[in-house]
Amino acid sequence: MQLNFLLPFFQWCDESYLGQWVRSGQWEFPIIESIHILALTFLFAVVVLIDLRLMGLMMKGWTVSGLTSELSKYLNASIVVILITGVLLFLSEALKAFDNPAFWFKIYLLVATLIFHFTIYNKTIHQEEVAPSKGWTMGLLSLFGWIGLGWAGRAIGFV
Fold it and tell me: Considering the entire predicted model, what is its pTM?
């Protein structure tokens, strides 16, 4: 799906100082990408812990809200690092991204996953008790969203 009205914005991003800086050096892109992937890995570890507890599969001695309160700062910090490094990576390849269907899939999934995460899911994981069916539903949706984002990000280089 082409959103041609966005092309001038993508051109501006590609020509921006930060985009040129990331693209121009030998180490900038690989270092930023490494930080991006490390933050994604950290995020995934935290999400798996919370989601498996939410689904009642582990750490049954903890309440979901107790585990969430312990891990929320790491979860949110990971999201911030991922978004910052993701923007820098995007700026360096904005015009390539414009024509890449995997990029657009990732953006749509990112928006949907973040909305889900900071609304329904966030409300659920802060409850003292969660019904098993709701825990399974929220846990699976969360895992599918975050795993899908990692998959879509990896696909960008191959499409």
Answer: 0.87
